[in-house]
């Protein structure tokens, strides 16, 4: 059936070319977008001023001597009316036009007998001949896998999907505007790294032929921005892609957009104040409200956020005191929780595994999780009053993590020791443990000012719109058919 429809359109394409018409001209001549035409409709209909639109046919209804077209561009949709008495080539256009074609149409605004805003078409010019039929109500595009594989079609037939991505663009622009408004400079740092770092994740490996060296795609935006603090910049941020060779689920993708920023001479307490302002500003500008419902829960982002102590919450949920805890105790607890922990996991990885099962799912309202154990925070500065915990914060809501930051570790000796511990974990089989980065340690030896850093990803947006993260990405990676 589909092949028959495609063949029929190819025959129409031949007819168009036989008539000497270029079915794919290089440019269009339009005087207005559809939204502007609709907005100024009353003025245009009174003046009979000619408008010229460039748009795709979204609907086509043949009424004999009249053809009604629903045409749409990025800004909106309007009805275009082709009448036999207005077009010398009416019969030709009637035979060759299809839903999905792009047209340049010129005419005047008028109201139909039913009161519908329309364009009475006086000239038609083909801009693009579509060779594949678009889905309709009878030939649907409801399957998620199909929609994601053919996202370009999804965007054509589902205006709400286009609106979602317009909202996502506004979300990132709001973040960027807020950062710049606070004096942060936007930077770009390398995507290829010789030593991946800044997070616990499995990297993608590649090879650079020109230098004959193995490289990794970055798993975070952190360590090069901290080198910039060493170099004298005080407030920097980057919005860019990061890559992690791990599972894909409702909250995780193998490549995604993240925002990270680093702020010299600030600590985690100042960080908490700014992060709360950043989130509230972006959410309000993007959604027009600070009360957002997601996953069956309504969170009020406009209130003063709560704080939750990591160790206290962990003990309350599990009965385990984290201070001085042994890996075997945590391993046995993980087994009881059916978490299937791998042998050889360190204390930090086991704590994190159990925490994500027992504590995090129950935090619904916007909350700062604070005072993380050193074992789960290899890059965070120790707390001056308690060397067993760190000056770290995480933003939690709807039972998931929506941001992460800390007072940055700038003691090169402490940092090297933590890298060495991570390397011991890698040797024991933990593929996500961090690698030793001698160059970064050397940079710290030149001196990095006290600083706070923070990162968030597009998971925040996907949770706010209550959709799996891959549905909020234009073209998520899919398994080949």
What does this entry show, briefly?
The protein is 34% helix and 26% strand. The chain is an alpha+beta fold and 481 residues long.
Characteristics:
about 475 residues, BirA Bifunctional Protein, domain 2, 8-stranded mixed beta sheet, 5-stranded mixed β-barrel, 20 strands
Shape: elongated
CATH architecture of the largest domain: 2-Layer Sandwich
Q: Number of folding domains?
A: 2
CATH H-tier superfamily of the largest domain: Bira Bifunctional Protein, Domain 2
Question: For the CA atoms, what is the radius of gyration?
Answer: 29 Å
- Fraction of residues in helix: 25-40%
> Can you tell me the CATH topology of the largest domain?
BirA Bifunctional Protein, domain 2
Could you please describe the fold and organization of this structure?
The protein is elongated and about 90 Å long. With 481 residues, the chain is α+β, with helices and mostly antiparallel strands. It has helices spanning 2-18, 34-39, 41-47, 90-96, 144-149, 151-157, 159-181, 223-230, 268-287, 310-318, 327-336, 347-358, 412-427, 438-446, 459-464, and strands at residues 51-62, 66-73, 76-83, 102-111, 117-128, 185-186, 192-193, 205-208, 213-217, 235-243, 255-264, 291-294, 297-300, 306-309, 367-370, 382-383, 386-390, 392-397, 400-407, 451-457. Helix content is 34%, strand content 26%. Helix 6 crosses helix 7 (159-181) and helix 13 (412-427) packs antiparallel against helix 14. The model has no long low-confidence stretch (mean pLDDT 93). The protein is built from 15 helices and 20 strands. It has two domains: 2-134, Nucleic acid-binding proteins (OB fold (Dihydrolipoamide Acetyltransferase, E2P)); 157-305 and 365-472, 2-Layer Sandwich (BirA Bifunctional Protein, domain 2), CATH 3.30.930. An eight-stranded mixed β-sheet has the order 6-10-11-20-19-18-15-14, with helices on both faces. Strands 1-2-3-5-4 form a five-stranded mixed β-barrel. The protein has a three-stranded antiparallel β-sheet with strand order 7-9-8, with no helix packed on it. A hairpin with a 2-residue loop joins strand 12 and strand 13.
